[in-house]
Amino acid sequence: MLNLPTYTDVAAAAERIAGKANRTPVLTSRTADEALGAEIFFKCENYQRMGAFKFRGAMNALSKFDPRQRAAGVVAFSSGNHAQAIALSAKLLGIPATIIMPLDAPAAKVAATKGYGGNVVTYDRYTEDREEIGRRLAEQHGMTLIPPYDHPDVIAGQGTAAKELIEEVGALDALFVCLGGGGLLAGSALAARQLAPGCKIYGVEPQAGNDGQQSFRSGSIVHIETPKTIADGAQTQHLGQHTFAIIRRDVDDIFTATDEQLIACMRFFAERMKMVVEPTGCLGFAAAREMKAQLKGQRVGVIVSGGNVDLVRYSEFLAG
Ligand SMILES: *Cc1c(COP(=O)(O)O)cnc(C)c1O
């Protein structure tokens, strides 16, 4: 039996991470409201610590470690935001962290992870299995493995962003959430179902990798090849057991966005709202923009999930 988190766990996570995670701003844009004929509330996790919502889940999970787990340390595998989230949370809590990253991970990401005090172990992504390395380290050294999305404490932590959003602006008619492995969407669904019962909850993933949509519609987890998309935070091959169970139960639908739509949103955020959003962070708004007719007159929440993008790449996207 899966141990699925509930809204009670999201509320407990919110207390646990209070004062450690940023309470990120909710921004609005008259241009966006006029373009959609709706009221749009952007929950800006690009202003979260380390630049993405993943700090919430990592901080919640690590805060629950018992003394033995704290002493032995945490291990995680990721080339992206989860690595930095675990490294920073562990540093703040005084827990040793080992992060397994591919040999060819971007130097900036390796440097950021090391900068937060993480001990980086590299592997060859073409010949070695990172999950196997993670399990081995966990077994040999008694470390606790914290996965990027398929874990009750991670899901509960991620749900605190939607909780803050709804508590701040009031009930919503629709909520758009970026979707990779489903930690953010599952946690957001737990929060929204409780705090805004009539709210439609939508996940949005890259069109090149719509495994979540296929899974949602077919009723079982679909695995795909690593999708080719600029949304590198959502290049997952499948949903998790826990995230899928919650998404299937609580989410209303899953949409997709193309890379071109993500770039158009990145430009909108830069030009109109003066903020840097990474491609994956644009997924929610990219789908909302395509649904003008359905959203007319509604109160719409959009989770902007992160802002970590290499600035050279970013300027290329904007220059297009
Ligand atoms: C990880 C990540 C996502 C996807 O989150 P999941 O919990 O895996 O669905 C979306 N946006 C950003 C910026 C991320 O880092």
Broad structural category:
alpha/beta
Q: Strand order within the widest sheet?
A: 1-2-10-7-8-9
Order of helices and strands: HEHEHHEHEHEHEHHEHEHHEHHHEH
Ligand set: pyridoxal-5'-phosphate
The overall pLDDT average reads 95
Low-pLDDT segments, ≥5 res: none
Number of DSSP-assigned strands: 10
| Main sheet characteristics | 6 strands, mixed
Overall, the morphology is globular
Estimated helix fraction = 40-55%
Distance between the termini: 48 Å
Percent strand equals 15-25%
The number of helical runs is 16
Radius of gyration, whole Å: 18 Å
What does this structure look like?
With 320 residues, the protein is α/β, with parallel strands linked by helices. It has 16 helices and 10 strands. The chain has a 6-stranded mixed beta sheet with strand order 1-2-10-7-8-9, sandwiched between helices. The model has no long low-confidence stretch (mean pLDDT 95). Pyridoxal-5'-phosphate is lined by residues 52, 54, 80-81, 148-149, 158, 178-185, 233-234, 236, 278, 280-281, 305-306.
What labels describe this entry?
15% strand; binds pyridoxal-5'-phosphate; four-stranded parallel sheet; six-stranded mixed sheet; 10 strands; alpha/beta; 320 residues
Summarize the structure.
This protein is an alpha/beta fold and 320 residues long.
SSE layout and pairing:
Layout lengths: L6 H11 L8 E2 L2 H7 L2 E6 L9 H10 L3 H6 L1 E4 L3 H13 L3 E6 L4 H9 L3 E5 L6 H12 L2 E2 L6 H7 L1 H10 L4 E5 L4 H13 L4 E7 L4 H8 L22 H10 L2 E5 L1 H15 L9 H7 L2 H4 L3 E6 L6 H9 L1
Parallel strand pairs: 2-10, 3-4, 3-6, 4-5, 7-8, 7-10, 8-9
Antiparallel strand pairs: 1-2
Helix pairs in contact: 1-3, 1-8, 3-5, 3-8, 5-6, 8-10, 9-10, 10-12, 13-14
The protein binds pyridoxal-5'-phosphate.
The site of pyridoxal-5'-phosphate has 23 residues, from helix 10.
